[in-house]
Design goal:
- The complex is a heterodimer of chains A (273) and B (166).
- Chain A is of the alpha+beta class and 273 residues long.
- Chain A contains 5 helices and 12 strands.
- In chain A, the strands form 2 sheets. Chain A has a 6-stranded antiparallel barrel with strand order 1-2-5-4-3-12. In chain A, strands 6-7-8-11-10-9 form a 6-stranded antiparallel beta barrel.
- The longest helix of chain A is centred in the N-terminal third of the chain and has 31 residues.
- Chain B is an all-alpha fold and 166 residues long.
- Chain B has one domain: Arp2/3 complex 21 kDa subunit ARPC3 (Orthogonal Bundle).
- In chain B, 66% of the residues lie in helices and 0% in strands.
- The chains are: A alpha+beta (273), B mainly alpha (166).
Chain lengths: 273, 166
């Protein structure tokens, strides 16, 4: 005690570091699947606060996009006027905002994926929290266990594969994107489904991987879809090949893949069972 | 800065970091508001280091919904805050460049350590990815810190190393 009183500053700093290390340790154990951490409980409260703010932020983002694309906005505006007139004649009781409607329309593309053809239900969710100041992409959605969401569920949007549910709380869930997931994703080329390979996320903007058979013909621009082997069902678009290089050390052709999903503007996603 | 003001400021920053600030993303990058706010307050105010626990709390709140492993960002923020506390003793606190130089440097160090900790904990992601987004993060964080300095500069207290210290 005497020593602690004499070294107050050191004790305070060491205590804070120790507490933070414990939080990291508990959080890490929780990710490994053993326990539900206190932090995730706090996450539930935070997500309730963040939800209305996220809706406001979504409006702000669209406003800024509008300012910088004024010409397109005018044209789009005319098209939207026609659409609204048509919708009014159909006398639909639409309470959704224009943005939400567009986002949901894009989500409908999910049912065009081979994996979900014939499926008639998807859980649409809003992205309520995402932090682009950190190197990795993890975000929270406003649907959780109460809506049937479970850990490991696959998250997509109308453009393709987004990731998997990392943690499901009561009314929210944390999603880890494929960019942030070092789990291998087995793919095949849409143009020639006999060509197969494996990719995994590079953290922020692309996926890296390789072609299984050295003799297979692939070109830049080829579209990749999930092959069905592994955790993801078959036929979900992953991305386009941006670069092909031959790795002398590995004796394999390496591919850099640009995702079909725009992770910088995620607003609505779908969880399809 | 009074306790209630600190609580409100960091609470707002914690919520805005994961929501509102995304509307201002440039090349997919947003500034780290909590980091910039903590550094600027520690830099400008005598006794500003007292804001560090509030920064930690805000960082943990934000992390609870956006980080795979909660606490990594908070640990690094703590280090950055302590570093600023030591740094300000040797520079002029009326000079914005002193703040911006530290902010730029610490953002790069922060990102590298963030990657290193995640690497140690098993995330197999290339450092090249962190390096790609780092310049934009450095620029954005520095610009945000400059904005905060301009807003708060009147509160800067004279320091023995300052040009006009009496």
């Amino acid at each position: 005690m005497k020593w602690i009183k004499k070294h107050k500053t050191f004790t305070a700093v060491a205590s804070i570091v120790l507490v933070l290390c414990i939080i990291i340790g508990v959080s890490y154990a929780s990710i490994a699947g053993s326990t539900a951490s206190i932090g995730r409980g706090i996450g539930g409260i935070m997500s309730a606060v963040e939800k209305p703010v996220a809706i406001l932020a979504s409006g702000l983002r669209n406003t800024f996009a509008g300012i910088f694309n004024y010409g397109n906005v005018l044209e789009e505006n005319n098209q939207l006027r026609q659409e609204i007139a048509e919708l009014q004649t159909e006398n639909k009781d639409i309470r959704l905002t224009r943005d939400e409607l567009e986002q949901l329309e894009r989500l409908e593309g999910v049912f065009d994926f081979d994996a979900y053809t014939g499926s008639d239900s998807a859980e649409a969710a809003r992205v309520i929290s995402i932090d682009h100041s950190k190197p990795y992409v993890v975000f929270t959605i406003d649907k959780g266990k109460a809506d049937g969401i479970e850990k490991g569920d696959i998250v997509v949007d109308g453009d393709g594969l987004i990731g998997r549910v990392r943690h499901a709380g009561g009314d929210h869930a944390t999603v880890s994107s494929v960019l942030n997931d070092s789990t291998n994703i087995a793919f095949k080329i849409l143009r020639d489904t006999s060509v197969m390979g494996v990719v995994s996320g590079d953290g922020r903007s692309a996926l890296q991987g390789y072609i299984l058979d050295e003799d297979d013909r692939v070109v830049e621009g080829d579209v990749l879809v999930t092959s069905g082997m592994g955790v993801y069902p078959e036929g979900i678009p992953i991305g386009k090949i941006k670069k092909i290089e031959y790795d002398q050390d590995r004796q394999q052709r390496m591919v850099t893949v640009e995702p079909t999903v725009d992770f910088n503007s995620l607003q609505k996603v779908a969880i399809v069972k | 800065m009074s306790l209630p003001v600190l609580i409100v400021v960091f609470l707002v920053a914690g919520v805005a970091q994961t929501t509102l600030i995304n509307a201002f993303a440039v090349f997919g990058v947003t500034p780290d508001m909590i980091l910039c706010l903590t550094l600027t307050i520690v830099f400008l105010y005598e006794g500003g280091y007292r804001c560090i626990p509030f920064g930690l709390a805000a960082s943990l709140l934000a992390a609870s919904t956006t980080e795979d492993i909660i606490g990594v960002g908070a640990l690094l923020l703590f280090g950055a805050g302590i570093g600023m506390y030591i740094y300000r003793k040797y520079v002029r606190v009326d000079n914005i460049l002193s703040l911006l130089a530290y902010c730029a440097g610490i953002t790069a160090v922060y990102q590298l350590f963030y990657w290193m900790i995640y690497k140690v904990l098993g995330n197999d992601i290339s450092i090249l990815v962190v390096l790609q987004s780092m310049p934009m993060s450095v620029i954005y964080n520095t610009a945000f810190a400059a904005l905060l300095f301009v807003i708060m500069k009147d509160k800067a207290e004279a320091h023995t190393n300052d040009r006009y210290y009496i």
